[in-house]
Write a structure and sequence with these properties.
By secondary structure, the chain is mostly helical. It has six helices and no strands.
């Protein structure tokens, strides 16, 4: 009987160790996935802003969507066909400013939860306007719905490792 008890205690210890290992791995995955989501959103937004100023090349070159701000304004007008044409340039500038603001906040991890939520909203609005103006395949081809979902997921994270947010004192929250 003592041998059986010893085997059971070894099994229980192993199960406990496995549970602890799963907990540690799960925490690391949460940390790394929030870092990856932050950087992916921030860099993607910055890349789009760079394209609007022609930093990736001129219009018509491979992998260049706009190439200059005038092409971006025209695309903004195409997606926002329901707005007065006089309002389109102001909307384009506002969208550029929002993307730049949220890109830097996501990249640096400053007010990440707010920036991620607002980025998710912006991307969801973008996906819907693309759907109504260009059809459902356009936002699916560009993974706009996926990017929006990723932003909303990032907004639900409890902590943001390797960020400016992690340097601020944490407010106690009830789960």
């Amino acid at each position: 009987m003592p041998a059986l008890a010893k085997r059971i205690s070894i099994f229980a210890m192993t199960a406990s160790d496995q549970l602890e290992t799963k907990r540690v791995v799960s925490k690391q995955m949460k940390d790394y996935s929030s870092i990856f989501l932050r950087l992916a959103l921030g860099i993607s937004f910055l890349a789009a802003v760079a394209d609007r100023f022609g930093l990736w090349g001129s219009f018509g070159q491979p992998n260049v969507a706009w190439g200059d701000f005038s092409h971006f304004v025209a695309y903004t007008g195409k997606l926002n066909w329901f707005m007065p044409s006089a309002a389109i340039p102001a909307l384009a500038w506002r969208l550029l400013a929002l993307r730049l603001c949220w890109a830097s906040r996501s990249f640096l991890g400053a007010l990440t939860r707010v920036a991620a939520f607002l980025s998710g909203c912006l991307l969801l609005l973008f996906a819907h306007s693309m759907t109504f103006a260009l059809g459902l395949k356009a936002p699916l081809n560009l993974s706009v719905f996926s990017a929006s979902a990723g932003a909303f997921l990032l907004a639900t994270c409890r902590q943001y490792s390797w960020s400016l947010d992690s340097l601020r004192p944490q407010i106690e929250r009830k789960p």
